[in-house]
Design goal:
Layout (H helix, E strand, L loop, with lengths): L17 H5 L21 H13 L21 H7 L16 H18 L3 E3 L5 H18 L6 E5 L5 H8 L3 E5 L9 H7 L4 E6 L12 H10 L3 E6 L11 H4 L3 E4 L19 E3 L11 E4 L4 E4 L16 H14 L3 H19 L15 E4 L1 H7 L3 H9 L7 E2 L8 E4 L7 H20 L1 H5 L12 H6 L8
Parallel strand pairs: 2-3, 2-4, 4-5, 5-6
Antiparallel strand pairs: 1-7, 6-7, 8-9, 10-12, 11-12
Length: 474
């Protein structure tokens, strides 16, 4: 048997000859193949049809409406993919600054653009996701207090926060203090005052919050925190709602992360790729990860000389192709970035008003980019839960919205239409939701067995979760 092992070497420099392979000296016998590989003989056409069929079984933004609350599943212009694949960007990450001037210039200009929309003073592009940005921001806050000699151990987090917030703060060494929302779905300022002491390093907030409601008391919260010597962290997951209209700096925040794969229209889902740049106010810039891209008037360079840096948080320079796509999106939109937020807010309020008479609306407030309905009525009256409603939506060529989050709303349906959808598509979604609500009253049995038109029908999710079948089968 002639194999590739004849020309390969092991870690000890020994040639892996036929003899060595066959005797199991280097590879155990049970892992050796004794015959030819059994592969099906297929034409290219058959192969292409197979993968096209597989693709058709998956749902994507190009196929239908994707109102996934808090995730901002907006359309990603395909020209961005072309631009990210340009040959000039396909350089080795270890090449020197002199050979990477074009890429460094792009990163530098992206930094400036993101600083303009956030109002902040300095930024890093390294973090590779929102949660990664959160942890980077919390590490910066911790290093800041360590450097000035203050031992602050607590981080305040509202009960409507994203689930990654407490995880990021905890992983950075902080104790979590949760505060409740008030009757309007906003931070209860009296509850905040009751837990605010000299051990508090920061508060982590999303504004608008996870209910899609703008925090009216944000300036009072900022004043309270700063008077206590504490900092404010801005979770930028919902930045698509305010871009160009206001910014975290004006609200009084000190640290902000942005999800480029949400607000700035780069591919999102399946765990990545993403990018979560972190921007800070002036007094925190010396704590940013290294390197930061700078310009000396003649050339762009990577600056590693940052006095109190927390160190690098990702190999090389972050998810560079995502940075290219975000920068292309910003250049294409220009001043129309403001219109993006305007239309996202308009779409969300339109859907909320159309649907609030058919589903419970726990917080009947003007919303920003998203809103949260509840299937509590349908579940209580007809046994149709939010999960059943979500499954039924799949029969209407619509991806279900985020369900059962935020946790402060029972049977939650968190809906975010983004600015990408036109009125016709929104009206189709409204009609589907109304039909589901009516069917819950007249024919709930049909909803209990949904979906009916998808490649995979309803499964026993409890059994699947408790007894997962992880075996590989032929």
């Amino acid at each position: 048997m002639k194999t590739i092992f004849e020309k390969s070497s092991g870690a000890d420099g020994i040639n892996l000859t036929d003899e060595g392979v066959n005797t199991g000296k280097y590879i155990p016998e049970k892992f050796l193949r004794n015959g030819e590989v059994s592969l099906p003989q297929m034409s290219e056409l058959e192969v292409m049809r197979h993968y096209k069929e597989m693709s058709d079984m998956n749902f994507c933004i190009e196929k239908g409406f994707y109102p996934l609350g808090s995730c901002t599943m907006k359309y990603n212009p395909k020209v961005n993919e072309f631009l990210a694949g340009l040959e000039g960007f396909n350089i080795h990450p270890n090449c020197g600054d002199d050979l990477a001037q074009g890429s460094l210039k792009l990163m530098y200009n992206l930094q400036k653009a993101l600083l303009e929309v956030t109002g902040m003073d300095a930024i890093t592009l390294q973090p590779s996701a929102g949660a990664h940005g959160e942890m980077t921001g919390m590490m910066i806050i911790k290093k800041y207090f360590d450097t000035i000699g203050e031992k602050r151990t607590k981080v305040i987090i509202p009960d409507s926060a994203h689930g990654t917030n407490p995880a990021s703060a905890k992983m950075s060494g902080f104790e979590i203090v949760e505060i409740k929302s008030n009757s309007k779905g906003q931070v209860d300022i009296e509850a905040l005052k009751s837990v605010l002491d000299k051990d508090v390093a920061a508060i982590m907030m999303t504004n608008p919050n996870t209910l899609g409601i703008f925090e009216e008391g944000v300036k009072e919260i900022s004043d309270l925190m700063h008077a206590n010597g504490s900092l404010l962290y801005y979770d930028g997951a919902n930045f698509n709602a305010i871009m160009g209209w206001t910014n975290p700096k004006l609200m009084g925040f000190d640290v902000v992360h942005l999800n480029l794969h949400k607000t700035f229209s780069t591919p999102h889902g399946g765990g990545g790729p993403g990018a979560g740049p972190v921007a800070v106010v002036e007094k925190l810039k010396d704590f940013l990860p290294t390197p930061v891209v700078e310009f000396d008037g003649e050339k762009y360079y990577r600056n590693y000389n940052i006095p109190h840096s927390i160190g690098s948080v990702k190999d090389f320079w972050g998810n560079f192709s995502v940075l290219v796509k975000a920068y292309a999106y910003i250049l294409m939109m220009g001043k129309n970035l403001k219109t993006v937020s305007e239309n996202a807010v308009l779409n969300a309020n339109y859907l909320k008003e159309k649907l609030k008479n058919y589903y419970d609306l726990p917080y009947d407030e003007p919303c920003m980019h998203e809103f949260v309905l509840s299937g509590e009525k349908q579940k209580h009256e007809n046994g149709v839960s939010t999960l059943h409603i979500a499954k039924a939506l799949m029969d209407g060529n619509t991806h279900p919205p985020t369900v059962y989050f935020p946790l402060i709303v029972h049977e939650a349906l968190m809906i975010e239409p983004t600015e990408s959808e036109d009125k016709q598509k929104l009206d189709e979604f409204v009609q589907t939701m109304i039909e589901i609500a009516k069917e819950a009253e007249t024919n709930p049995e049909k909803l209990l067995s949904a979906p009916h038109t998808t490649p995979v029908k309803k499964i026993d999710e409890v059994t699947a979760a408790r007894h997962p079948d992880l075996k590989y089968t032929d």
